[in-house]
C-alpha cells in the first residue's frame, strides 16, 4: 500500500469546504432552494470539521479528533 499523506488528505477537505462556500446557487425556487442551501451548509460544516481535526496514528489507524463543543 502506498504511503498515506494525512496533510494532503486534510488539505483536500479544506479545499472542498472552500469550494462549497464559493459555489453559486443554481436557479431553484421554494423548497428545492431551501434543500440545496441546507445541503451546502452541511457539506461546508462537514468538510471544515474534518479539515481542522487534530490527528494521530494509533495502532496503525488514523484517528481524527474533532471537538464537539466550542472552546474544546
Summary keywords:
single chain, 72 residues, two-stranded antiparallel ribbon, 2 helices, 14% strand
What does this structure look like?
With 72 residues, this protein is of the alpha+beta class. Helix content is 54%, strand content 14%. The chain contains two helices and two strands. The protein has helices at 6-22, 30-51; strands spanning 54-58, 61-65. The protein has a two-stranded antiparallel sheet. A hairpin with a 2-residue loop joins strand 1 (54-58) and strand 2 (61-65). The longest helix has 22 residues, at 30-51.
Overall average residue pLDDT: 90
Multimeric state: single chain
The secondary structure category is alpha+beta
What share of the residues does DSSP label as strand, in percent? 5-15%
Element layout with pairings:
Layout: H1 6-22, H2 30-51, E1 54-58, E2 61-65
Antiparallel strand pairs: 1-2
Helix pairs in contact: 1-2
Quick recap of the structure?
The protein has 72 residues and is of the alpha+beta class.
